[in-house]
Amino acid sequence: MSDRKRKPATHVVEAGRKPEWTGIPGQPGGVVNPPVWRASTHLYDDAEDLAGGRPNADGHFYYGRRGGPTQWALAEALTELEPGADGTELFPSGVAAIACTLLAVLRPGDELLVTDNAYEPTRSIALAMLKQFDITARPFDPLDLDGLAAMIGEKTKAVLVENPGSLTMEISDVPAIAEIARERGVLSIIDNTWATPLGFPALERGCDISVMSLTKHVGGHSDVMMGSASAAKPVINRIRRQAQFMGQVVSPDDAALALRGLRTMALRLERSARSALEIAEWLATRDEVAAVLCPMLPGTRDHELWQRDFTGGCGLFSFILAKGYDADARARLLDTLELFGIGFSWGGYESLAIPFDPAPVHTLRPWPPGIDSGSGLGVRLSIGLEDVTDLKEDLAKGLDAMGAV
Ligand SMILES: *Cc1c(COP(=O)(O)O)cnc(C)c1O
User: What pTM does this model have?
Assistant: First the structure.
């Protein structure tokens, strides 16, 4: 365990670097990073050692599906980064982390309440996949806390939030949501991919389980897919058991890539958040833009809550095109961009842009609420590590290519 008084940027460098994972027993010294331990079989010393067994002893060799030092180092690092967590389970994707976490905490007959602004695949897991297990799910409006409290019934066992919401980026009062849940014995789960524990220490803010797609900020280089779930005991033990039932395992090579990404995460988040804010401020002055959906932007509806609850941001935000522009104009904008790739995912070192239409994703009210959504045509940007002046110039060319309305 590293010293909790140290600052997050120090933690991302130090976390998980145990000498027993980076050195050879009996030899002085060691290396900086845990080696990539490729292994299915773990060898026992002798028959007695095997008979003793150690299937669930943390950090002990047993069998490849329980991971090895490379995966343990990553899981341990993520646990150290999340104050309040006793452990972290790794999954081959963020979606796998969400699906398996829900199956770990819900039983047939239970109900899940899922935020209406959830990541679309999360919504599908909740509303379609869980049905196969006789688990019901209902979306709730994350800005209506009284409404949420009224929805919680005897069968409700978990609430799933995201902060900010996917694509539309509204901030909800997650500490209050977590408290409402806790008072009624309901578990709160947050998809904390946007902020990471560096920007939103989710368990400290009251959530029971923090799930992340490590594919985004932790990997950071668009070359690995992975997910995680962190929690205190006994909840983390339930998640671990479910993950083991379902054979969830990540490769040591991928774990090493994620660890490598993690070491620069604080630096990358700081830089991309700064560039994103500058670009968001500039986009807000443009006639082609009806609204910028970015909680880091002062003067927005969400900024106050973001300032209260978050300790950092990132490079991901959205904007809505002004009235009069159509999908063809938006396509011209995207096709003109040279520095922004067009593609899913985000949180890499390179900038990305993707079109989205908020209307069909949310069902409870027009999103983003309280904002004249202009044309209703959205663009989401993931700001990378390029020079911010170059990015603005690229976007300016794209906006010009849409023409006047
Ligand atoms: C990408 C994403 C996920 C899913 O992660 P994968 O690693 O792609 O499976 C989950 N939640 C959010 C908010 C995401 O952006």
Answer: 0.96
